[in-house]
Specification:
Elements (H helix, E strand, L loop, with lengths): L3 H10 L10 H8 L2 H12 L7 E11 L2 E13 L2 E7 L1 H5 L22 E7 L5 E4 L6 E4 L6 E5 L3 H15 L15 H5 L10 E4 L5 E4 L2 H14 L11 E12 L8 E11 L2 E7 L19 E8 L3 E6 L7 E6 L8 E6 L5
């Protein structure tokens, strides 16, 4: 440790998504390569001398305590913990959550010293990992509300790679083994006798951390919700969800010094007849065990919906990844004809 393969891998992964703005302190981290990155980890982040850095990933993150604030983070996975290196601006963005963060170093604000805060989730405190639909995001759950984080990778490859690395690291933990399970048939394993409803597919790792994946019913529930938002004439049997992707809606800021674009996270759902934009709650569902009341908002809130037959043309930008799409609808009832979307997951 560190191996040449690891050096090459974390150097390649140390790339901030081009469309997201980060602070000077995180830009400094993104410029580090190879051994300098490992030395930075051990000198500034690692809590134990003998822990090893295994994986690096840049991702937007959401915290359970601040569900409306998406922030960019450098996610570092070691053999002891998961570290989220965050913008210092995150501390000041939500003042009523100030007890969530330790503000000892706030006197550094006015100096040339660029501060980042680091959120640490020890692997021993990890209880479950919920993988979102089509691997667009995943939620890591610890033992309290302070220990729930969602990583919005918007990329199935990044999600899959992180989950694989996490499983490998968890295998190194020395935990007392669980008692041997009693043999069960398929229906008693995954079904609930009281409701007859299938539960989400669970994989219990040898470290006793649960990895929970969505099942087909989640897509069925989503299709039903989408059908409710559509015309009453819609036949649910003929409704198919063709695409579910976490994207950004682009709002151009007029009159600013630079022609900047404000990116608003949205869930894009395409059916055989309609195109929908939803505000989705990525952090509160499924409900954590310690939650005493349901979340204040629904999991999906409809922002906009247009019929495909009203779609006049689709304009494709020629810039590199991520690709920008503009959907132009021929909709007389709605004066806002231009719908700007930047897809962060637009590949082959």
């Amino acid at each position: 440790y560190p191996s040449e393969f690891l050096m090459q891998k974390i150097t390649e992964d140390n790339q901030i998504p081009v469309h997201l703005h980060v602070s000077v302190s995180l830009q400094y981290v993104a410029r580090l390569k190879g051994y300098a990155l490992v030395e930075f980890f051990h000198g500034n982040i690692a809590e134990v001398e003998n822990e090893e850095l295994r994986h690096l990933m840049w991702s937007s993150v959401l915290f359970y305590k601040t569900p409306n604030l998406e922030v960019m983070a450098c996610v570092l996975l070691s053999t002891k913990a998961i570290y989220f290196v965050l913008d210092d601006s995150f501390i000041h963005a939500d003042e009523h959550q100030s007890d969530f963060w330790n503000k000892e170093n706030s006197d550094c604000e006015n100096s040339s010293f660029h501060l980042s805060c680091c959120f640490v989730l020890k692997l021993n405190d990890l209880q479950s990992v919920n993988v979102g639909l089509f691997d667009q995001y995943f939620r890591i759950t610890g033992h309290s509300a302070n220990h729930i984080v969602t990583c919005l990778t918007r990329d199935s490859y990044n999600t899959h790679t992180f989950i694989q690395q996490l499983m490998a690291v968890l295998s190194l933990l020395a935990r007392t083994p669980s008692p041997e399970p009693v043999d069960k048939d398929f229906y008693s394993e995954f079904g609930s006798k009281t409701t007859g409803k299938m539960e989400n597919y669970e994989l219990i790792h040898s470290s006793r951390v649960k990895f929970i994946y969505p099942n087909e019913e989640e897509i069925g529930d989503l299709a039903f919700l989408v059908a409710e938002k559509m015309d009453a004439l819609t036949n649910l049997q003929s409704l198919n969800i063709l695409l579910y992707v976490l994207a950004f809606q682009v709002n151009h800021v007029e009159g600013s010094a630079q022609n900047t674009s404000l990116l608003q996270p949205k869930t894009l759902i395409l059916t055989s007849s309609d195109l929908f934009l939803f505000d989705e709650d990525y952090i509160s569902y499924p409900l954590p065990e310690f939650a005493k009341e349901p979340p204040k908002r629904d999991k999906y809130q409809l922002v906009d919906g247009r019929r495909i037959r009203d779609l006049d043309r689709v304009l494709m930008g020629y810039q590199t990844y991520p690709q920008a799409l503009t959907f132009v609808f021929d909709d007389v009832q709605n004066q806002d004809l231009m719908q700007n979307l930047t897809l962060d997951h637009f590949g082959e």
